[in-house]
Amino acid sequence: MYFPKPNKRFLNQTIYVTGHLYPDVDSVISTLMANQLLKHFGFKAKPLILRYPDQFTIRILNKLNIEKPPLRDKSTFVDEKVFLVDHSNILNSIGKGTNCEVVGIVDHHISPEVDKVCQNTYIKQAASCSLTLYKMMKEIKDFKITKDHKRMTLYSSAVDTSAMLSDKISREEKKFIMKLIEEENIPLEELKKDILVETDFSQELPILAKNGFTTFNEEGINASSIYIEVCVHTQKKEEKIKRMLDYIQETTEYQLCVVVYWNFTLSTTTVYFCGALNKNQNFQTFTLQGIIGRGNTIIPMIREKIRIYNKQKN
Protein backbone atom coordinates (compact mmCIF):
# COMPACT_ATOMS: atom_id res chain seq x y z
CA MET A 1 0.00 0.00 0.00
CA TYR A 2 1.37 3.41 -0.97
CA PHE A 3 0.33 7.04 -0.70
CA PRO A 4 -0.08 8.49 -4.23
CA LYS A 5 2.17 11.55 -3.87
CA PRO A 6 1.63 14.27 -6.47
CA ASN A 7 4.39 15.08 -8.91
CA LYS A 8 7.31 17.06 -7.41
CA ARG A 9 6.56 19.94 -9.76
CA PHE A 10 3.60 20.78 -7.49
CA LEU A 11 5.79 21.22 -4.37
CA ASN A 12 5.64 25.02 -4.46
CA GLN A 13 1.94 25.23 -5.33
CA THR A 14 -1.04 25.11 -2.98
CA ILE A 15 -2.91 21.81 -3.16
CA TYR A 16 -6.49 21.83 -1.90
CA VAL A 17 -7.61 18.56 -0.34
CA THR A 18 -11.33 17.84 -0.50
CA GLY A 19 -13.85 15.06 -0.12
CA HIS A 20 -17.07 14.85 -2.11
CA LEU A 21 -19.65 17.61 -2.33
CA TYR A 22 -21.78 16.31 0.57
CA PRO A 23 -19.28 15.80 3.44
CA ASP A 24 -19.93 12.88 5.78
CA VAL A 25 -17.74 11.58 8.61
CA ASP A 26 -15.40 9.54 6.39
CA SER A 27 -15.07 12.32 3.82
CA VAL A 28 -14.13 14.96 6.40
CA ILE A 29 -11.72 12.75 8.35
CA SER A 30 -10.10 11.48 5.14
CA THR A 31 -9.60 15.09 4.03
CA LEU A 32 -7.73 15.88 7.25
CA MET A 33 -5.61 12.71 7.12
CA ALA A 34 -4.63 13.14 3.46
CA ASN A 35 -3.77 16.76 4.18
CA GLN A 36 -1.36 15.64 6.92
CA LEU A 37 0.28 13.12 4.60
CA LEU A 38 0.77 15.72 1.87
CA LYS A 39 2.38 18.10 4.36
CA HIS A 40 4.61 15.29 5.60
CA PHE A 41 5.99 14.96 2.07
CA GLY A 42 6.61 18.70 1.79
CA PHE A 43 3.52 19.83 -0.15
CA LYS A 44 1.67 23.07 0.64
CA ALA A 45 -1.67 21.40 1.35
CA LYS A 46 -4.89 22.95 2.62
CA PRO A 47 -7.97 20.92 3.66
CA LEU A 48 -11.47 22.15 2.89
CA ILE A 49 -15.12 21.14 2.65
CA LEU A 50 -17.54 22.25 -0.05
CA ARG A 51 -20.73 22.23 2.04
CA TYR A 52 -21.56 22.41 5.72
CA PRO A 53 -21.75 18.86 7.20
CA ASP A 54 -24.99 17.42 8.57
CA GLN A 55 -25.73 17.34 12.31
CA PHE A 56 -24.64 13.73 12.71
CA THR A 57 -21.21 14.41 11.17
CA ILE A 58 -20.77 17.51 13.35
CA ARG A 59 -21.64 15.46 16.44
CA ILE A 60 -19.01 12.81 15.65
CA LEU A 61 -16.38 15.48 14.91
CA ASN A 62 -17.18 17.13 18.25
CA LYS A 63 -16.91 13.76 19.98
CA LEU A 64 -13.38 13.45 18.56
CA ASN A 65 -12.52 17.11 19.28
CA ILE A 66 -11.89 17.67 15.58
CA GLU A 67 -12.34 21.08 14.02
CA LYS A 68 -13.99 20.78 10.61
CA PRO A 69 -11.94 22.05 7.64
CA PRO A 70 -12.69 25.54 6.25
CA LEU A 71 -15.75 25.85 4.03
CA ARG A 72 -15.27 27.03 0.44
CA ASP A 73 -17.82 27.40 -2.33
CA LYS A 74 -16.97 25.20 -5.30
CA SER A 75 -17.76 28.06 -7.70
CA THR A 76 -14.67 29.95 -6.47
CA PHE A 77 -12.20 27.41 -7.87
CA VAL A 78 -10.30 28.43 -10.99
CA ASP A 79 -7.00 26.96 -12.29
CA GLU A 80 -6.09 25.31 -8.97
CA LYS A 81 -4.58 22.00 -7.85
CA VAL A 82 -6.83 19.57 -5.98
CA PHE A 83 -6.35 16.23 -4.23
CA LEU A 84 -9.52 14.10 -4.03
CA VAL A 85 -10.42 11.76 -1.17
CA ASP A 86 -13.45 9.49 -0.69
CA HIS A 87 -14.39 10.01 -4.36
CA SER A 88 -12.52 9.71 -7.62
CA ASN A 89 -14.06 12.18 -10.05
CA ILE A 90 -14.00 15.96 -9.82
CA LEU A 91 -17.63 15.97 -11.03
CA ASN A 92 -18.60 14.75 -7.54
CA SER A 93 -16.96 17.71 -5.81
CA ILE A 94 -15.68 20.88 -7.50
CA GLY A 95 -17.09 20.07 -10.92
CA LYS A 96 -15.82 20.59 -14.43
CA GLY A 97 -15.29 23.93 -16.13
CA THR A 98 -12.95 25.27 -13.44
CA ASN A 99 -9.71 24.24 -15.16
CA CYS A 100 -8.62 22.70 -11.87
CA GLU A 101 -6.09 19.89 -12.06
CA VAL A 102 -6.50 16.70 -10.02
CA VAL A 103 -3.01 15.89 -8.69
CA GLY A 104 -3.90 12.86 -6.56
CA ILE A 105 -6.75 10.54 -5.54
CA VAL A 106 -7.36 8.19 -2.62
CA ASP A 107 -10.73 6.44 -2.66
CA HIS A 108 -12.26 3.25 -1.26
CA HIS A 109 -15.02 2.89 -3.88
CA ILE A 110 -14.48 1.01 -7.11
CA SER A 111 -16.22 3.29 -9.59
CA PRO A 112 -16.36 3.66 -13.39
CA GLU A 113 -16.41 7.44 -12.82
CA VAL A 114 -12.73 7.60 -11.82
CA ASP A 115 -10.82 10.57 -13.23
CA LYS A 116 -8.53 8.82 -15.73
CA VAL A 117 -6.51 12.03 -16.27
CA CYS A 118 -4.88 11.73 -12.84
CA GLN A 119 -1.91 9.35 -12.75
CA ASN A 120 -1.35 9.47 -8.97
CA THR A 121 -4.30 7.38 -7.88
CA TYR A 122 -4.94 4.76 -5.21
CA ILE A 123 -8.38 3.17 -5.38
CA LYS A 124 -9.21 -0.06 -3.63
CA GLN A 125 -12.46 -1.34 -2.15
CA ALA A 126 -12.27 -0.88 1.62
CA ALA A 127 -14.43 -0.29 4.68
CA SER A 128 -13.60 3.43 4.69
CA CYS A 129 -11.27 5.89 3.02
CA SER A 130 -9.83 6.87 6.40
CA LEU A 131 -8.88 3.24 7.05
CA THR A 132 -7.01 3.19 3.72
CA LEU A 133 -5.16 6.40 4.65
CA TYR A 134 -4.36 5.11 8.13
CA LYS A 135 -2.77 1.99 6.64
CA MET A 136 -0.74 4.25 4.34
CA MET A 137 0.46 6.19 7.38
CA LYS A 138 1.62 2.96 9.01
CA GLU A 139 3.72 2.17 5.93
CA ILE A 140 5.69 5.43 6.24
CA LYS A 141 8.59 4.86 8.62
CA ASP A 142 9.10 8.46 9.73
CA PHE A 143 5.40 9.33 10.05
CA LYS A 144 4.28 9.55 13.68
CA ILE A 145 0.88 7.97 14.25
CA THR A 146 -1.00 9.52 17.14
CA LYS A 147 -3.92 8.54 19.32
CA ASP A 148 -6.04 10.99 17.28
CA HIS A 149 -5.26 9.12 14.05
CA LYS A 150 -6.40 5.86 15.62
CA ARG A 151 -9.62 7.32 17.02
CA MET A 152 -10.47 9.12 13.78
CA THR A 153 -9.97 5.92 11.80
CA LEU A 154 -11.93 3.88 14.30
CA TYR A 155 -14.98 6.15 14.40
CA SER A 156 -14.98 6.85 10.67
CA SER A 157 -14.81 3.13 9.85
CA ALA A 158 -17.46 2.32 12.45
CA VAL A 159 -19.84 4.85 10.91
CA ASP A 160 -19.23 3.57 7.38
CA THR A 161 -19.77 -0.08 8.39
CA SER A 162 -22.63 0.20 10.92
CA ALA A 163 -20.32 -0.58 13.84
CA MET A 164 -18.74 -3.43 11.83
CA LEU A 165 -22.11 -5.09 11.17
CA SER A 166 -22.22 -4.35 7.44
CA ASP A 167 -21.14 -7.01 4.97
CA LYS A 168 -19.07 -4.37 3.14
CA ILE A 169 -16.29 -4.90 5.69
CA SER A 170 -13.89 -7.79 5.06
CA ARG A 171 -12.77 -10.23 7.72
CA GLU A 172 -9.25 -8.78 7.56
CA GLU A 173 -10.52 -5.20 7.99
CA LYS A 174 -12.78 -6.19 10.87
CA LYS A 175 -9.83 -7.83 12.59
CA PHE A 176 -7.74 -4.69 12.00
CA ILE A 177 -10.44 -2.39 13.44
CA MET A 178 -11.11 -4.66 16.41
CA LYS A 179 -7.40 -4.38 17.22
CA LEU A 180 -7.75 -0.58 17.18
CA ILE A 181 -10.73 -0.89 19.53
CA GLU A 182 -8.58 -2.94 21.88
CA GLU A 183 -5.64 -0.51 21.68
CA GLU A 184 -7.86 2.51 22.37
CA ASN A 185 -9.89 0.67 25.01
CA ILE A 186 -13.20 1.76 23.48
CA PRO A 187 -15.89 -0.89 24.00
CA LEU A 188 -17.82 -1.81 20.84
CA GLU A 189 -21.06 -1.08 22.70
CA GLU A 190 -19.86 2.48 23.35
CA LEU A 191 -19.13 2.89 19.64
CA LYS A 192 -22.64 1.68 18.78
CA LYS A 193 -24.13 4.13 21.26
CA ASP A 194 -22.22 7.00 19.62
CA ILE A 195 -23.00 6.20 15.98
CA LEU A 196 -26.40 4.50 16.10
CA VAL A 197 -28.98 7.15 16.90
CA GLU A 198 -32.61 6.19 16.42
CA THR A 199 -34.99 8.66 14.83
CA ASP A 200 -37.58 10.07 17.24
CA PHE A 201 -40.82 8.39 16.13
CA SER A 202 -42.92 10.37 18.63
CA GLN A 203 -42.69 13.36 16.24
CA GLU A 204 -45.63 14.42 14.13
CA LEU A 205 -45.43 13.48 10.43
CA PRO A 206 -44.44 16.98 9.15
CA ILE A 207 -41.46 17.02 11.55
CA LEU A 208 -40.53 13.37 10.97
CA ALA A 209 -40.52 14.05 7.22
CA LYS A 210 -37.73 16.63 7.73
CA ASN A 211 -35.34 14.30 9.58
CA GLY A 212 -31.84 14.73 8.12
CA PHE A 213 -33.36 16.92 5.41
CA THR A 214 -30.99 17.82 2.55
CA THR A 215 -31.66 19.44 -0.83
CA PHE A 216 -29.98 18.89 -4.19
CA ASN A 217 -30.24 20.30 -7.69
CA GLU A 218 -29.25 17.78 -10.32
CA GLU A 219 -29.75 18.18 -14.07
CA GLY A 220 -32.24 20.98 -13.43
CA ILE A 221 -34.37 18.80 -11.16
CA ASN A 222 -34.98 19.89 -7.57
CA ALA A 223 -34.47 16.93 -5.26
CA SER A 224 -34.37 16.36 -1.54
CA SER A 225 -33.63 13.55 0.87
CA ILE A 226 -34.36 12.54 4.44
CA TYR A 227 -32.89 9.87 6.67
CA ILE A 228 -34.70 7.52 9.07
CA GLU A 229 -32.84 5.23 11.44
CA VAL A 230 -34.38 2.41 13.47
CA CYS A 231 -32.37 0.63 16.14
CA VAL A 232 -35.22 -1.39 17.66
CA HIS A 233 -37.60 -2.70 15.01
CA THR A 234 -41.35 -2.65 15.73
CA GLN A 235 -44.48 -2.95 13.59
CA LYS A 236 -45.70 0.40 14.93
CA LYS A 237 -42.59 2.15 13.54
CA GLU A 238 -43.02 0.42 10.17
CA GLU A 239 -46.60 1.67 9.98
CA LYS A 240 -45.54 5.23 10.81
CA ILE A 241 -42.88 5.12 8.09
CA LYS A 242 -45.57 4.11 5.57
CA ARG A 243 -47.78 7.00 6.69
CA MET A 244 -44.81 9.35 6.41
CA LEU A 245 -44.14 8.20 2.82
CA ASP A 246 -47.77 8.91 1.89
CA TYR A 247 -47.49 12.32 3.54
CA ILE A 248 -44.30 13.17 1.61
CA GLN A 249 -45.82 12.02 -1.69
CA GLU A 250 -48.84 14.27 -1.14
CA THR A 251 -47.08 17.37 0.20
CA THR A 252 -43.49 17.58 -1.10
CA GLU A 253 -42.62 20.61 -3.22
CA TYR A 254 -39.67 18.72 -4.72
CA GLN A 255 -39.75 16.80 -7.97
CA LEU A 256 -37.92 13.97 -6.26
CA CYS A 257 -37.60 13.08 -2.60
CA VAL A 258 -35.37 10.18 -1.60
CA VAL A 259 -36.07 8.56 1.76
CA VAL A 260 -33.21 6.50 3.20
CA TYR A 261 -34.40 4.10 5.89
CA TRP A 262 -31.79 2.17 7.83
CA ASN A 263 -32.89 -0.70 10.06
CA PHE A 264 -30.21 -1.59 12.60
CA THR A 265 -32.05 -4.73 13.74
CA LEU A 266 -32.07 -6.19 10.22
CA SER A 267 -28.84 -4.44 9.11
CA THR A 268 -30.54 -3.25 5.91
CA THR A 269 -30.97 0.08 4.16
CA THR A 270 -34.13 0.63 2.13
CA VAL A 271 -34.44 3.55 -0.28
CA TYR A 272 -37.82 5.01 -1.27
CA PHE A 273 -38.42 7.48 -4.11
CA CYS A 274 -41.28 9.98 -3.71
CA GLY A 275 -42.31 13.22 -5.41
CA ALA A 276 -43.51 14.43 -8.80
CA LEU A 277 -41.19 12.06 -10.67
CA ASN A 278 -43.04 9.28 -8.91
CA LYS A 279 -46.62 10.45 -9.53
CA ASN A 280 -49.13 7.74 -10.47
CA GLN A 281 -46.59 5.06 -9.58
CA ASN A 282 -45.98 2.86 -6.59
CA PHE A 283 -43.04 3.80 -4.41
CA GLN A 284 -39.89 2.49 -6.06
CA THR A 285 -37.66 0.82 -3.51
CA PHE A 286 -34.56 -1.27 -3.28
CA THR A 287 -32.69 -2.70 -0.33
CA LEU A 288 -28.97 -2.81 0.33
CA GLN A 289 -26.98 -4.56 3.01
CA GLY A 290 -25.53 -2.20 5.61
CA ILE A 291 -25.66 1.55 5.67
CA ILE A 292 -25.16 3.84 2.68
CA GLY A 293 -25.32 7.29 4.22
CA ARG A 294 -27.31 9.61 6.42
CA GLY A 295 -29.28 11.45 3.77
CA ASN A 296 -26.41 13.48 2.35
CA THR A 297 -24.35 10.88 0.48
CA ILE A 298 -27.02 9.55 -1.84
CA ILE A 299 -26.45 11.69 -4.90
CA PRO A 300 -25.58 8.66 -7.11
CA MET A 301 -29.08 7.25 -6.48
CA ILE A 302 -30.70 10.58 -7.30
CA ARG A 303 -28.75 10.76 -10.55
CA GLU A 304 -29.73 7.21 -11.44
CA LYS A 305 -33.42 7.91 -10.78
CA ILE A 306 -33.25 11.06 -12.92
CA ARG A 307 -31.47 9.12 -15.68
CA ILE A 308 -34.22 6.47 -15.71
CA TYR A 309 -36.92 9.18 -15.64
CA ASN A 310 -35.38 11.08 -18.55
CA LYS A 311 -35.03 7.85 -20.52
CA GLN A 312 -38.69 6.98 -19.99
CA LYS A 313 -39.78 10.54 -20.82
CA ASN A 314 -37.90 10.48 -24.13
Keywords:
314 residues; DHH_sf; 19% strand; 5-stranded parallel beta sheet; Diaminopimelate Epimerase, Chain A, domain 1; inorganic pyrophosphatase (n-terminal core); globular; Oligoribo/pAp-PDE_c-di-AMP_PDE; Manganese-dependent inorganic pyrophosphatase-related; DDH_dom; 2 domains
Write the layout of secondary structure elements.
Elements: E1 14-18, H1 25-40, E2 44-48, H2 55-63, E3 81-85, E4 101-107, E5 121-123, H3 129-139, H4 147-160, H5 171-184, H6 188-195, H7 205-208, E6 214-218, E7 221-230, H8 235-251, E8 256-263, E9 268-274, E10 284-289, H9 299-313
**Major β-sheet, in short?**
5 strands, parallel
Q: Helix segment count?
A: 9
CATH superfamily of the largest domain: inorganic pyrophosphatase (n-terminal core)
Q: Percent range for helical residues?
A: 25-40%
What average pLDDT do the residues reach?
A: 85
Gyration radius, in Å: 20 Å
Sheet with the most strands: spatial strand order:
2-1-3-4-5
Low-confidence stretches: none
CATH class placement of the largest domain: Alpha Beta
Beta strands, count: 10
Count of discrete domains:
2
* CATH T-level topology of the largest domain: inorganic pyrophosphatase (n-terminal core)
Distance between the termini: 46 Å
The CATH architecture name of the largest domain reads Alpha-Beta Complex
Q: Helix/strand/pairing class, anyone?
A: alpha/beta
* SSE topology string: EHEHEEEHHHHHEEHEEEH
What is the 3D form? globular
Which percent range describes the beta-strand content? 15-25%
Protein name: Manganese-dependent inorganic pyrophosphatase-related
Domain DDH: 14-142
Organism: Anaeramoeba flamelloides
InterPro entries: DDH_dom, DHH_sf, Oligoribo/pAp-PDE_c-di-AMP_PDE
